[in-house]
Design a protein that fits this description.
By secondary structure, the chain is mainly alpha-helical. It has helices spanning 16-19, 32-38, 48-76, 81-108, 116-129, 134-146, 167-172, 175-196, 222-246, 248-274, 289-294, 304-307, 315-320, 329-340, 351-361; strands at residues 281-282, 298-299, 346-347, 364-366, 375-379. A hairpin with an 8-residue loop joins strand 4 and strand 5 (375-379). Helix 2 packs across helix 14 (329-340). Residues 13-23 have a biased composition (Basic and acidic residues).
Length: 382
């Protein structure tokens, strides 16, 4: 039996029916200190060598794919088979670079090493290379971790209320419309969030991760935003000269296409880890940090779990203890499960099926009828 009282399946993973049961929303019978004691102490240890090993491993794999693609695809595959070759390269390279993105994301949480300057230097290089403003993202992402599932204060993927549903949602609330929304979200959702704060916390004025004077940032953080912008501009400048040298098509196939895949994976991962019919949102009368952190969902991406360094299937642990390195995430998760009980959320539904279901079932949030507490659940009826 877990803390919530329901027996887990023999594998420790919930069936789809179990996963769709509402998660407990009362204050848990354990504390953050209890959870920390349940985890082996070595899980909190960061190894600079191990972290670099994973990063170098990803970069070597990315270079190997680049070398094979640029050396053999156009030389040995006649048209139109070479297009299929480039499509395969873009898909696989995007997955590998998503893994590198995840290692860079470790730097946001100081989980890469015990040295802040190394974390920031590595994070700045990795994120900027993938067109993400490092310090800008680091600040807003940490705010998300500090306010997860808070209707008033969460930084991203803030759900709508029924009164805020626009007419085009009703038009798109059908199978073709849901596919279109997912395709658009995966293609441009992350850049739109960075540039225009789309789906982010609402501020009184225009907000952008590239604006040093954005309400996202304090006065003392503005220099870091400028550094992030300079790094992004340096990458754009390099890409501009690469286009002049190699042509736009070559740059798109080698870099632009995989980058779109990285953005798509990142968007999908974060949406599915935080959007589920079983997890609640809280207003300020009910929210507290631990209950918010527990409202994340571990997902199963099959072989990609390993490619993505288990950021998808150890996400609950990541939100509770973001300083734990990814290579200890699964062990820490298993150690916490007996104590978490029904407060641990896992859904092994195949990803494509989960995507469609969440787009259909999770349209807006509202309280249950007659509910006086500030607990909100996803609804699908428009």
């Amino acid at each position: 039996m877990g803390a919530g009282g329901r027996m887990a399946t023999p594998s420790g993973k919930k069936t789809e029916t179990e996963a769709l049961r509402r998660a407990p929303h009362e204050k848990p019978p354990f504390t953050i200190g209890d959870l920390k004691k349940a985890i082996p102490p070595h899980c909190f240890e960061k190894s600079l060598i191990t972290s670099f090993r994973y990063l170098i491993q990803d970069l070597l794999m990315a270079y190997a794919l680049y070398y094979v693609a640029t050396t053999y695809i156009d030389q040995y595959l006649p048209r139109p088979l070479n297009y299929l070759g480039w499509a395969a390269y873009i898909a696989v390279q995007g997955c590998v670079l998503t893994g590198a993105w995840v290692v860079g994301h470790e730097c946001d949480h100081d989980a890469f090493s015990n040295y802040n300057w190394i974390n920031d230097l590595v994070g700045l290089i990795v994120h900027s290379s993938l067109m993400v403003p490092y310090f800008s993202w680091k600040i807003s992402h940490r705010r998300h971790h500090a306010n997860t599932q808070s209707l008033e204060n969460d930084e991203v993927y803030v759900p709508r209320f029924k009164s805020n549903i626009r007419n085009y949602y009703k038009i798109l609330n059908n199978p073709p419309g849901r596919v279109l929304v997912w395709a658009t979200t995966l293609l441009i959702g992350f850049p739109l969030y960075l540039m225009f704060n789309v789906s982010g916390h609402k501020y009184e004025r225009w907000t952008s991760h590239y604006d040093p004077h954005s309400p996202l940032y304090s006065e003392r953080e503005r220099k870091e935003i400028i550094i992030s912008d300079i790094a992004i501009l340096a990458v754009i400048y390099g890409l501009y000269h690469l286009v002049l040298l190699k042509g736009f098509a070559w740059v798109f196939c080698v870099y632009g296409g995989p980058l779109l895949v990285v953005n798509g994976w990142f968007t999908l991962i974060t949406i599915l880890n935080h959007t589920h019919p079983s997890v609640p949102y809280y207003d300020s009368t009910e929210w507290d940090w631990l209950r918010g952190a527990l409202c994340t969902v571990d997902r199963d991406y099959g072989i990609l779990n390993k490619v993505f360094h288990n950021v998808c299937n150890a996400h609950v642990c990541h939100h509770i203890f973001s300083m734990i390195p990814h290579y200890h995430g699964l062990e820490a998760t298993e150690a916490m499960k007996p104590l978490l009980g029904d407060y641990y959320q896992y859904d092994g539904t195949p990803i494509l099926k989960a995507m469609y279901r969440e787009m259909k079932e999770c349209i807006y949030v509202e309280k249950d009828e007659g509910e006086t507490k500030g607990v909100y659940w996803y609804r699908k009826e428009i």
